[in-house]
Amino acid sequence: MSSRVLPVFDLLLPSNLEEAVGLLSQHGDQAAVMAGGTDLLVGMKVGMSPAFILSLADIQGLDYVAFDAKHGLRIGAMATLSQVVDSKVVNDKYHALWYSAFTNGTPQTRNAGTVVGNILRASPAGDCCCAALAHGGSVLLQGPAGKREVDLDEFWLDYRKTARKPDEVAVELKLKAPEHGYGSGFAALTRSYQDLAKINAAARVIMDGKVCRKVRLAMGAVAPITLRLKEAEKVLTGQEVTDQLLEQMAAAVRKEVKPIDDVRSTAEYRREVAGVLAKRVVQDAIKSVAGPCPYSCFMGA
Amino acid sequence: MKKRSISLTVNGTVHDLEVPVHRTLLQVLREDLDQVETKYGCGTGECGACTVLVDGEKAILGCLTLAASMDGKSITTVAGLEKDGQLHPVQEAFIEEHAIQCGYCTPGMVCKSVSILAKNPKPSEEEIRHNLEGNICRCTGYVKIVQAVQRASERI
Question: What is the pLDDT of residues A92-124, one digit of tens each?
Fold first, then answer.
C-alpha cells in the first residue's frame, strides 16, 4: 500500500494499572506508552521503532473529565481531546485548555488523541501543554512504589523529556480550581489550522476589578520546553492593567523567550510576535473573567 | 504479543481475525478483507482519506488505528452507508451537488460528513468547514462539498 507502514513491535495490553506498572518495570526502557496513538504511530511510520508498545486501551475507567469546585479539574489518561472539547465545564471554567483542545489537530485525531498524551509528548509546541501550564496543575504518576504527583512547572525537563520514569504510567492531569476573578486565554499561530504551532501562548489571570492579582503566562515553541514567563508575570502582578502595562509586559516577554530558527518559523519572527501573542492572551483572559468564554462562538461546532 | 485474535464487525458482517499487532485497521480492511473503498492517502493522519466510522458515528482514521485494538468494535465504511439499496442522504447529496471530481477523498469525506450530521443535524457553514478540516480534497475547492453537506442536512 505504501512505505508508511509500522515496524514490527510487541504489543502489551494490560487490563489494569498495576499490571501496566508491572510490565513497565520489566520492559520500560524499551517500551513506548500509547493512549490515542495519533502521535506515537506517526512517529513510528517515519523512523521510531520501540520494541514494545504498552497500550492503555484495555484499562477501564481512565477516560474521565471530572470537575469539582474545591479540587479543580481531573482529566484521565484516556480522555480524548474531543471529550474535552465537548465538556461544558471545561468550556465554562478552563477557556485556555478548551481552546487549545478545540484547535488541536483535526476532528479525527481529536477523537483518538488525548490531553494527557499531549502533555507526555513534551513537545515545546504542544498546545495543551501551553494551556495546562498557564492554568497550573500537576501530573499524577503511578509506579511500583505507588502514586506521586509532579507539578507541571517541574514536569518537562528538556525537549521530549519528562519527569515520568520508565516504569511509571501517567494516570491523570490535574488543574487547579478556579478562584474568584479567574479567567484564561490561549492562542496559537500556525500556517494552517491543523499544523503544529510555530508559537503558542496561554494566560491565566485572577483579577480584582482592573487590577491583576495573580497571573500565569506560558509560551510554547520558544524554547526546548514550554516556558513559564515569570519576568513578564511580575510586570502584571498587583498592577492595574493598562495598554502601557501590556506593552511593558510584551517587552519583558521578548527578553525572556529563547526561540530558534526552524522549519516553521524564524527566531526573529517568533521573538517579535511573542510579545503580541502574550498581550492577546492576557486580554482574552481578562475578558473571560466577566462573562462567557471568548471562544463560545465556536461551541456547537 | 505479536498477534491478537479479534472479532471485528465491518458493515454488519462479523469477521474473526488473527491480526499481527503492527497492522493498521486500514491495512486489514483493504488487504485482508478486500474492502478497498476506504482509501490510503498520506498514512500519517493528515488527509482524512482513510476515515471510517466506529460504533455508529464516530469518525476515526484507519491509518492511525491498530487493528489489534479494535476487538469487539463495529466499523462502517462508505460502502456500508447504503441501506436496502438506497444510498445514504449524504451520498445522494454528494452526487446531486457534483461534490466529487477525482473521487479519491470522497469515501473519507462522506464518512466524516455523516459523523458531522449525526452530532449536529443543522450545522452552520462555519461548523461544516471546521469539522471537515481533517479531510483534504485537491480537486473541488470544497464549495460543492460544503453545499452537499448542507443539502444532506435538509433531509436528515
Answer: 999 999 999 998 999 999 999 999 999 999 999
CATH number reported for the structural domain that contains residue A36 in this entry: 3.30.43
Decide if domain B89-153 falls under CATH 3.60.20.40: no
pTM as predicted: 0.94
Judge residue B56's burial from the number of C-beta atoms within 10 Å of its C-beta, 0-12 exposed, 13-18 middle, 19 or more buried.
Answer: exposed
Instruction: Round to the nearest angstrom and report the end-to-end CA distance of chain B.
Output: 44
Interface list for chain A against chain B, based on CB atoms closer than 8 Å: 1-2, 4-13, 37-38, 41-42, 45-46, 53, 55, 57, 105-109, 111-112, 193-194, 298, 300-301
A176 min Cα distance to partner chain B (Å):
30
ipTM (interface pTM): 0.95
Hey, what CATH topology would domain B3-80 get? Ubiquitin-like (UB roll) (3.10.20)
Residues of chain A contacting residue B21, judged by C-beta atoms under 8 Å apart: 9-11, 53
Residue that terminates a domain, selected from A158, A175, A192? A175
Number of domains composing chain A: 3
Between A7, A41, A107, which is nearest B133 by CB? A107
